[in-house]
C-alpha cells in the first residue's frame, strides 16, 4: 500500500511536468511547421489552384495528363534518374567500403574529395560536364547526376557498414564461403536498409534535377522539372505547369515515403549494433575494391579539373582574363551594371542569412522529432516527410507561388530582400534535419531523465545534455546548409532582384549571352564557387561528425 501510494504521488507530481513538456514540444513544432506552411505550402497550393481551376490559362489538365509527349517526358525523367541512381550506387559502394572498413592514411582525404561534388552548385556541375563532354546529351546528364550523388551513397551506406558485425562475415569465410558469397549472403542483407535509403534520396535528387538538365539538355532533353520551367516561364501555360507539378509531387511523396521506411530500418539496425567496428588494413582481394574506390575518386575529380582548366583557357592561350573581367559587368552588360565580385558578395551574404534561418528551423524540428517517435511514430513520420518536401517540389512552382501570394503580406513581401534567403532556407533545412536528427536520437534518454529529475527545465536539459553531444553535428549542418544556400539556383533565379544577383544567377546570365568574355567569366565564377565550397567542406571535416549523423 505504501509503495502504491508513493507511486501515485510521484505520478501526480510528474503530471504537470509532462503536460508542460508536451506544450513546450508543440510550441517548438509550431515554428518550423508554421514557416513551412506560410512560405511553402501556401505558395505551392496557390499556384496549383490558379493553374488547375476552371478557366485557367493554358493546356487543360486532362489534355496534359493524357498527352503522349507528357508521358515521354515522364519516362525520360524516371529513366535518367534510375540510370544515374544505379551508377551512383555502383560507384559509391566501393567508396563506402573504403570509408567504413579500411584503415588507410588517406581515408580522410577521400572523404573530403567525395563530399565536394554533392555540395557543388548545379550550375557549376552543368558547366563542368559541358566542358568535358560538349555533345553527349543524355550521357552527360546521367553522369552529372551520378557525379552529384556518389557522396550520398558512400556516406549513407558507409555509416551503416561501419556498424555491421565483421564476425558474421568472418564466420562465413571460415565455413568455406568465397569472399563474394560472404558479401552477398551476409554483408549485403545487413546493408540493405542503408542502400534503400540512399537509393531513394539519390533518385529524388536526380528526378528533380534542374540546373544540370537545363544546361546539358537544352531544348532537346527535358525532364518534368525543366518542362515545368518551360511552360510556366516561356509559354505562360500555368495549367499545364500545374498538372506536371502534381505528377512530380506524387513521385516525390512516394520517394520520400520509401526513404523514410528504409531510414527507420537503418536506425533500428544501428541501435542493435552499437559502436562502429575498428577499421583495419585491406587484406587480399579487398585491395581490388580499394583500387576501384580510388578510380572512382579520380573520375570525380576529372570534371572539376576540367572546369578549372577551362576557366584559365582563352583564345590567346592560358590566362586569367575571365577572373579579371569579374571586376566588370561582362560583355554587353550581362549583369545590368553589377560586377561579378558584387554578385559573389551577394551570394555570401544571402547564404549567411539562409543558414541562420535553416539552422533555427532544422534544429527545432530535430528536437521535436527526436522526442516524438517513441510515442507518436506516425506523427513524427508525417512531420519528417513534410519537412523534406521542399527539396522535391519544382523551384518554378515555388517561385511563381511567391509572386502571386507574397503581396498579401504586409508591405508587399515580393520585393523584400528576405524572400531569397527564405527560399534557400527551405532547401537547406532538410539537410540540417538529416544531419542533426540521428545524433539527437542517439542520446541516451536516461541522461535527460536524470537531469529532469534533478530539477532541470526542458531548455536546460537540452543545453546541458543534448547540445554538447550534438555540437559537431550542428557545425557540420551549418556548413552544409551554407554551401547548399550558396549554390541554390532554381528558386533564386525567379526571386532575386535584378540589381542584386547571386553568383549562380550571374553564371546563368553569362552563359546565356554570346561572347567569349562572358564564357570565360562564367567558368571563372564557377571556379570561385567551387573554391569556397571546398574550403567549407574542409572546415566541416575538421569538426568531424559521427558517421551515423551523416545524410
TrEMBL record:
InterPro entries: MetI-like (IPR000515), MetI-like_sf (IPR035906). One of its GO terms (cellular component) is plasma membrane. It is a multi-pass membrane protein. The chain crosses the membrane at residues 20-53, 73-100, 112-132, 138-162, 183-216, 241-263, 284-309, 354-373, 385-406, 418-440, 473-496, 521-540. Keywords: Cell inner membrane, Cell membrane, Membrane, Transmembrane, Transmembrane helix, Transport. GO terms for biological process: transmembrane transport. Residues 74-257, 344-540 form the ABC transmembrane type-1 domain. It is found in: Cell inner membrane; Cell membrane. PANTHER family: INNER MEMBRANE ABC TRANSPORTER PERMEASE PROTEIN YDCV. Belongs to the binding-protein-dependent transport system permease family. This is ABC transporter permease. It comes from Longimycelium tulufanense.
Amino acid at each position: 500500500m505504501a509503495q502504491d501510494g508513493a507511486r501515485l504521488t510521484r505520478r501526480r507530481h510528474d503530471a504537470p511536468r509532462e503536460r508542460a513538456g508536451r506544450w513546450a514540444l508543440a510550441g517548438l513544432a509550431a515554428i518550423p511547421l508554421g514557416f513551412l506552411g506560410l512560405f511553402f505550402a501556401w505558395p505551392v497550393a496557390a499556384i496549383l489552384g490558379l493553374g488547375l481551376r476552371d478557366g485557367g490559362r493554358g493546356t487543360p489538365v486532362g489534355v496534359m495528363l493524357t498527352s503522349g509527349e507528357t508521358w515521354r517526358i515522364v519516362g525520360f525523367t524516371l529513366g535518367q534518374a534510375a540510370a544515374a541512381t544505379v551508377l551512383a550506387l555502383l560507384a559509391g559502394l566501393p567508396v563506402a567500403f573504403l570509408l567504413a572498413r579500411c584503415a588507410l592514411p588517406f581515408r580522410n582525404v577521400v572523404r573530403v574529395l567525395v563530399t565536394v561534388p554533392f555540395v557543388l552548385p548545379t550550375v557549376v556541375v552543368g558547366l563542368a560536364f559541358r566542358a568535358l563532354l560538349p555533345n553527349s546529351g543524355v550521357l552527360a546528364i546521367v553522369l552529372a547526376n551520378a557525379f552529384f550523388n556518389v557522396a550520398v551513397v558512400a556516406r549513407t551506406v558507409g555509416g551503416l557498414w561501419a556498424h555491421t558485425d565483421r564476425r558474421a562475415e568472418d564466420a562465413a569465410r571460415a565455413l568455406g564461403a568465397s569472399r563474394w558469397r560472404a558479401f552477398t549472403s551476409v554483408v549485403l542483407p545487413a546493408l540493405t536498409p542503408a542502400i534503400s535509403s540512399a537509393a531513394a534520396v539519390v533518385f529524388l535528387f536526380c528526378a528533380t534535377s534542374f540546373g544540370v538538365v537545363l544546361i546539358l539538355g537544352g531544348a532537346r532533353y527535358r525532364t518534368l522539372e525543366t518542362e515545368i520551367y518551360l511552360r510556366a516561364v516561356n509559354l505562360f501555360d500555368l495549367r499545364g505547369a500545374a498538372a506536371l507539378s502534381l505528377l512530380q509531387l506524387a513521385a516525390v511523396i512516394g520517394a520520400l515515403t520509401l526513404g523514410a521506411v528504409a531510414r527507420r530500418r537503418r536506425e533500428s539496425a544501428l541501435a542493435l549494433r552499437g559502436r562502429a567496428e575498428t577499421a583495419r588494413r585491406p587484406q587480399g582481394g579487398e585491395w581490388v575494391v580499394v583500387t576501384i574506390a580510388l578510380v572512382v575518386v579520380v573520375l570525380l575529380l576529372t570534371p572539376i579539373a576540367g572546369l578549372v582548366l577551362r576557366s584559365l583557357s582563352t583564345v590567346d592561350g592560358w590566362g586569367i582574363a575571365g577572373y579579371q573581367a569579374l571586376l566588370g559587368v561582362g560583355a554587353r552588360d550581362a549583369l545590368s551594371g553589377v560586377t561579378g565580385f558584387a554578385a559573389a558578395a551577394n551570394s555570401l551574404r544571402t547564404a549567411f542569412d539562409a543558414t541562420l534561418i535553416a539552422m533555427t528551423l532544422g534544429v527545432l524540428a530535430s528536437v521535436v522529432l527526436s522526442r516524438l517517435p517513441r510515442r507518436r511514430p506516425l506523427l513524427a513520420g508525417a512531420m519528417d516527410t513534410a519537412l523534406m518536401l521542399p527539396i522535391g517540389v519544382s523551384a518554378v512552382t515555388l517561385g511563381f507561388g511567391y509572386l502571386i501570394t507574397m503581396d498579401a503580406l504586409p508591405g508587399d513581401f515580393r520585393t523584400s530582400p528576405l524572400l531569397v534567403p527564405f527560399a534557400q532556407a527551405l532547401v537547406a533545412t532538410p539537410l540540417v534535419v538529416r544531419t542533426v536528427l540521428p545524433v539527437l536520437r542517439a542520446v541516451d534518454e536516461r541522461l535527460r531523465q536524470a537531469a529532469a529529475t534533478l530539477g532541470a527545465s526542458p531548455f536546460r536539459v537540452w543545453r546541458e545534455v543534448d547540445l554538447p553531444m550534438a555540437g559537431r553535428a550542428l557545425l557540420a549542418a551549418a556548413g552544409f546548409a551554407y554551401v547548399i544556400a550558396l549554390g541554390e539556383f532554381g528558386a533564386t533565379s525567379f526571386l532575386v532582384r535584378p540589381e542584386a544577383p547571386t553568383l549562380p544567377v550571374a553564371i546563368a546570365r553569362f552563359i546565356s549571352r554570346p561572347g567569349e568574355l562572358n564564357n570565360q567569366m562564367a567558368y571563372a565564377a564557377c571556379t570561385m564557387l567551387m573554391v569556397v565550397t571546398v574550403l567549407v567542406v574542409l572546415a566541416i571535416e575538421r569538426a568531424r561528425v559521427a558517421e551515423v549523423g551523416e545524410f
